[in-house]
Fold this protein.
Amino acid sequence: MKRKKTGNNQKFTIGMKKKLVVLFVLVLLAFVGLGVRLILITKNNGEEYEKQVLSQQQYDSTTLPFRRGEILDANGTILAYSEKVYNVILDAKLLLRDEKYLEPTIKALVKEFKLDSGEIRDYLRDHPTSQYYVLAKKLSYDEIKTFQDMITPGMEGYDPDIQGVWFESSYIRKYPNGSLACDIIGFTSSDNTGMYGLEEYYNNTLSGTTGREYGYLDEDSNLERTTIPATDGDSIVTTIDGNLQNIVEKYLKEFNETYANNFRQGNAANNVGCIMMNVNTGEILAMAGYPAFDLNNPRDTAPLIGMPAVDEKGNKVKGESVLDSGVYITEEMLESFTDEELYQNYNSLWKNFCISDTYEPGSVAKPFTVATGLECGAITGDEVYNCTGKLEVGGWEIRCHNRYGDGYVSVERGIEISCNVAMMYIAQAIGVSKFTKFQKDFGFGLKTNVDLAGEARTEGLTYSAANMTSTDLATNSFGQGFNVDMIEMITSFCSLINGGYYYEPHVVKRIVSSSGATIKNIEPRILRQTVSQSTSDKIIQYCNQVVAGAEGTGKTARPAGYMIGGKTGTAQTLPRGNQQYVVSFMGYAPADDPEIAIYVVVDRPNTRYQDDAKFATRIVRAVLTEALPYLNYPMTVELSEKEQAELAELREKMVTPETPVVETTEEENVEETEETTETEEVKEESSSIWETFDVDPATGYYIDPNTGNPIDSNGYELGGDTLPDFTGEPVTEESSEGNSN
């Protein structure tokens, strides 16, 4: 009987199948869970994990510089621009990753940039992991172009073995005209921030926004980049006429060459300033001071020589006696300066005298006194005053410029000959309340808000009605006892001669984007009306006589071929009795319809007798003789032979259109001759006491035998008695003012 064979066959039981299904479901659920988790991680924490991953790679980020906006003059001439430059950067880690890159790279660096190969090798040896080292700075594109081609694939000259070098771009500020308009423009610091002038005032406008370039480098130096481009700054178009600016600066420099080291060592004056302004808009056409400095090299010490020295706190170093107007910088002094002293003296050089320094204005304030009297009804303009050479006010004797008196003086003649006594009588008629009110209306004691950095605050340097005494009123009437700055004076003076409209002064007329589109036009802005048209007309009439009148104190300001108007000024400084003066001339052209105003201030001229406004009037004459033909104003006065020769010489040096001379008829010539003869006869009949004095053949001045001081042909005593110092008890003897002519 055969036995039945049994096999080893296994079958899945239902229980086992159930277990497999459960396992499969669990695995599936696990994968689903992981998937969901990955999705959640990516959604909620992706950036965090991405940073962790990227932190394991080489990370590259570069700042992209913006280009600072340009500064242009009114004619479109570039006064300041930014030039792109490059730093040569060495990445030692990248260079040293393969030995074959070392020699070709060093050889190329030495050849193109004249670098020292030994220094490069030493740095690579000491800093093998460094990725940023500056080999050369501020190179132009032309200087790097050849090397740039060597490291750029596809360019002729490309060498794949030159590695580990790249270029970092930036901008440097350039001033193509050197020192031209330096006080107006200002300059930038090493971090591209504006300092002084327009560069500082419009810093936010001229500045753009830096860009950024992000890159991620892998081990094969493959680079993925994200770039946020830089936004360039906007440009500004100024009201400055570069040709007028050149003319002004030329004659300020010429003045310095004439009087430097004259009576003492040092510049021709402590400060000299000139502003030209459009009377009917407030636009500044030119503004300059002396000394100037090179905007491309503002820390050059050469311009400091001859300036008044200041100490570590910025205060002017006093001279050995009260008669000294300062201590003047020499080369030897420069070597002894501390860093702080040098900085303070640089600051004195860089600041704009025309807006930042204050002084007592002197007799250029007299038209304001007369205008106040006319406007408030205190005078009609027909008054006549008796000038005996002095007037007692508040127990003090205050003198006129003419110690022997001007006799009977009308309001008009009071401006023409600059009579202090007449002005004091007018101020008494006005009264303290109205006088101080009009001073504020004229802007004295207030900032003009001119768009330049560094304007002085004169608040507190003028009187209020509550604290002004009768003596203060008297001295204020002829421009002593209160302080102003140049921009304050010329802005207010323009309102006197344009019908009474006070315009806010400004230097910028348009803001332009980097693409050339106009972003903003800055229109003339009238802030208030200071006087009426009728008062303005009378002030023009009176100021015309200052230049045209037989006794006018400003005759030497008249340019060749033109009649202008204006007012001279000579102000005593503190302490009284120091024989230090600020002389000035405020003028306008044409005389019959003012359009251009000019103001020149000479602060303590370098001469024995400083109180002579001719130091200012001669600058005005020189500037306007060249500027008015350039501005195409027709001549209004027949030229003398001397003036014709002068203009012929000027035309050889300047490119300006010839201006037609107004021909005077024979009848006009006869009238002029008769008037001259009549004036000479009157002069002859009214011979003054000083005309009997001896004349100094060297200077042409009369010499007063009582004081030994010189006296000019109009009776102005130079170096005479000064304002009382108003300390102690009032005296009524020979204490006096003011050579405020």
In short: DSSP finds 22 helices and 25 strands in the chain.
